[in-house]
Amino acid sequence: MYIISNKLKETESFIPHEKINELLETTKNPDRKLIEQIIEKSLNKERLTPQETAFLLNADDPELVQMIFNAAKQLKEKIYGNRIVLFAPLYIGNECINGCLYCGFRSQNRQIVRKTLNEEELSEELYVLTSKGHKRLIVVFGEHPMYSPKFIANVIQKIYAFKNKTGEIRRVNVNAAPQTVKGYEIIKEVGIGTFQIFQETYHLPTYKKLHVYGPKSSYVYRLFGLDRAMIAGIDDVGIGALFGLYNWKFEVMGLIYHTKHLEERFGVGPHTISFPRIEPAFGTPLANNPPHPVSDYDFKRLIAIIRLSVPYTGLILTAREKPQIRREAIELGVSQIDAGSSIGVGSYSQIDQEVVRKSQFVLGDTRTLDDVIKELIENGYIPSFCTACYRAGRTGQHFMEFAIPGFVKEFCTPNAILTLKEYLVDYGSCETKKAGEMLIENELSKMPEQRRENIKNLLMKIEAGIRDVRM
Ligand code: SAM
Ligand code: SF4
């Protein structure tokens, strides 16, 4: 049995700092041939070694960068097809006892209003979210004794129980403080999707400078946070780094070593990887002036390199980013985005500009869900609200998409079409409906006859009012 010692020293981690620095130093100026070989390995669906990732990170020549972009696009199309899964964040409470210097919620920020949704307010938020067509949420919490595992579990139960005509939430992911194994067990009981924890920075000295007090000041407790989740039986976990705190190349290496560690310990890597960039935050000087800002160009590079390095993992791009960079980044291998998001506590139902201005950070993409869906359709993507795998007990979904030949064509694309159809019938604007119906026709025309007929039958059921139709 795998037990994590609770006496780990801060330096006892699986992020080998010296080795990472050495790899980043010894892989400089890779030649074209080598980059081609590494790309070829990735296109054959093999995870890259840390050294191979370091070569890609050091491919600074614009021609090589373009090769990496092209390969990431190719890999995304080859493995995942053209679906983009949509979700929304739901902030439950911003009480926090930590002092993360980049976050508007840190306890010393006296300029924001602290708030936790009560039951009625939670219902109001869910009413708005489900009225817009959302089916997948990530619930977000500050770190505070109030937000105990039981509290979190209770919120999730309430969300699953909520019904709004045909609207309901079918998958709840969680972004909250790392828990004990017991704590995760309580949360797992109510049926969560992915448990996300971002390490923020994998660079220990930087981590120590930015997290001076509160439970989050322990680097290793956080680093092993998802090991404890896995031990508790939560097998969909999401990792991430907050880009802008330290050198972006080091952070990508950290994500790769974290992935490798989970694979080695549990036989399965992370379900998703997130790569938020720091955004300005009210009353938070460091967020307004990050120590290692990442340019849009380097941001796209890091996404493409993560795509190639870990071909089987879902990549999440949030509405922290502006619409234009979202458009460009999606092509490079992103599989999930949030849309129509609002990150104030209670701000879906109470549109108070002051709450929005003083939330955790400032959002870059404030378009409505319908606008984002329409644009995705126009760009040839199938917006998907699919939750079929999770609900059929097929966890580790991304791994199946990746490992089982034909899985995407047989399950993912049909389910994306079916959930899009539900959206169009129940919530779509006229223009989105028109564009969506054309996209569905086009997708059906590409399918073998038998599958096309099956899906047409299911689409007719949706038109007749049946919901939650899936393969
Ligand atoms: N409180 C929990 C924690 O810290 O793990 C979970 C929720 S926290 C609100 C979610 C994530 O927001 C953090 O892990 C961090 O990466 C991100 N975040 C914090 N401040 C940010 C900022 N100024 N810009 C962008 N993302 C930020
Ligand atoms: Fe609190 Fe999380 Fe913000 Fe840190 S990142 S201050 S723990 S809400």
Notes on the protein architecture:
- This protein is α/β, with parallel strands linked by helices and 471 residues long.
- The chain has three domains: 17-75, no CATH class; 83-391, TIM Barrel (Alpha-Beta Barrel), CATH 3.20.20.70; 397-463.
- The chain is built from 21 helices and nine strands.
- Strands 1-2-3-4-5-6-7-8 form an eight-stranded parallel β-barrel, surrounded by six helices.
- Helix 5 links the parallel strand 1 and strand 2 (136-141).
- The radius of gyration is 21 Å and the shape is globular.
- 50% of the residues are buried.
- The chain binds S-adenosylmethionine (SAM) and iron/sulfur cluster.
- S-adenosylmethionine binds next to strand 2.
In short:
This protein has 471 residues and is of the alpha/beta class.
